[in-house]
Structure formats: structure tokens, C-alpha cells
Amino acid sequence: MIGRATDFYTQLNERYPAYTRVFRFLLSGGTALGTDLVLLYLFTDIFGIWYLASAVAAFILAFGVSFMLHKFWTFGDHSREGIHMQMGIYFLVAVTNLVLNTLLVFLFVEWVTLHYLLAQIFASALIAIESFFIYHRFIFQKTTTI
Asked: How many CB atoms lie within 10 A of CB 122?
């Protein structure tokens, strides 16, 4: 069964590489989000760490998961050369996106009068699109071909 799924994915990837890259991007981002939320819960509720310290620790660890998945799996950049520079730029993009997310949610709630959860969904979607192109064009561009 796993062999057939792998063969199917390989055929899709060969035929539609851009779509499978977007799929890998969303799956990698979802994995990083899940990592962040699970770690936040564990640090705060299980280990009794202050929730803000837990949030910072969870963000840092989830950042590592996100970077590694996007670099090596989503965009297929297996080079080790310049990895520290890539990680630094990736971190700046992540922090910028955090600020941008906060601003967009504020604007959607206060000016557009959306419910805060719907505002977060829209902000997340916009940031995901922006992030994909930044990662693809500027950070992991060596081996990508969209």
C-alpha cells in the first residue's frame, strides 16, 4: 500500500512539480504549526512553564522544524553551503510575518469588522502566499524550478 502511494506521489511530482511543491509547503507549514501548538501546550500545561516563555521556546523549536522541512523537502535545497545565511534570512522573514500577521488581523477586525478567527484565517492565507514566493525566489532558489 505504501509503495503504491509513493509511486503515485512520484508520478504526480514528475507531472506537476509546482503543485506538489505547494502541497509540500502547506504540509510543512502545518507540521511546524502543529509542533508549535503541541510544544506550547506541553511546556505550559505539563511542565508548568510561564505561557510567554513557553510560546518563545515553542516558536524557536517550531522555527527549526519549519526551516528544515522547507529547505530540504519543500524546495529540495540539499546544499549545506550558506545554510546559516539562509536560516538568518528565514528567521527575519518569520519575524516580519509575525508583525505583518498581527497588523493584518488588527486591520481586518477593526476596519473590515471581521470576526477575529476569520481575520486570522485571511491573514494566514495572505502570509502563506507571500512566504512561499519569498522562500522560493530568495531563500531556497538554488534548486527550485517553478
From this structure: 15
In degrees to the nearest 10, what's the CA dihedral of 54, 56, 58, 59?
A: 160
Distances (CA, A) of 80 to 49, 76, 101: 35, 12, 30
Q: What is the pLDDT of residues 100-110, one digit of tens each?
A: 999 999 999 99
Rounded to two decimals, the pTM is 0.81
pLDDT tens-digit map of 64-99: 999 999 999 999 999 999 999 999 999 999 999 999
Q: Structural domain boundaries of the chain?
A: 2-139
Angle formed at CA 51 by CA 55 and CA 111, multiple of 5 degrees: 70
d(CA 85, CA 78): 14
Handedness of CA 86, 92, 95, 98 (dihedral sign): negative
